[in-house]
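QUALITY CONTROL LOG
STEP: pairwise intake check
CHECKER ROLE: data steward
CRITERIA: each record must contain a sequence immediately followed by its structure tokens, with no blank fields

ENTRY 1 OF 2
RESULT FIELD BELOW
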Amino acid sequence: MATRLITLRQGDARDAGIVDALMAAAFDPRFGEAWTRSQCLGVLAMPGVRLLLATVDDEPAGFSLTRAIAGEAELLLLAVAPPFRRTGVGRALMDAVVADCRIQDVTILHLEVRADNDALYLYRATGFAKVGERRGYYRGRDGRQYDAHTYSLALGST
């Protein structure tokens, strides 16, 4: 089996089309988790927001979107296209997010995830611990509601 090269780079608003395509591939519309282009662009314009893009052999494979402020950060979105799941792309993105947070002197990283999302395995493996729950937070296209769980990762001071 050939080794595939995972490359990470900082992104910006010019990458909105890539982010849109990755969200369309990665997020099942029945759960209502994907953001619109205008939501992404609005967040990207805020201070402390970082977009990180992952490619595998130059093919868009995933991204993360984080916001850091006042010593805390939140992983707003993380997406990995289905063909690249369980290939190290998600882990590479998470490791880079954590490393970037440490550089920014972030002491705690938060995230929110649908209660039965497969990404929970990645978050737990990274060291996140569940700290809360929001009942019926996500609303799917069919009107069904899904619980969200909140997780945090203590990074300590650098």
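ENTRY 2 OF 2
RESULT FIELD BELOW
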Amino acid sequence: MKKSTFDLYRCSSSEWSKLTWKNALRVRAMKARMAKEYYRKEANKLSIKFGEDYNKLLQLYTDSNKARLFNLETLEES
């Protein structure tokens, strides 16, 4: 399943469109961390830790973390 910018970062891409490339990577890493924390908190609110809703939040959490790591690695390489 393809993830949208909002799924990965919980914001629109326009929020970093006017930033320099390096600053955009920093913002994306920060937003991905915030999204990851949001998905973890939402998953913890569920009374049942399995099923479609939980699995969706878990996948979004994982994808946001991958996006965070990708942006940090790209920043280190630049």
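INTAKE CHECK: passed for both entries
DESCRIPTIVE NOTE, ENTRY 2: The chain has a mean pLDDT of 91.
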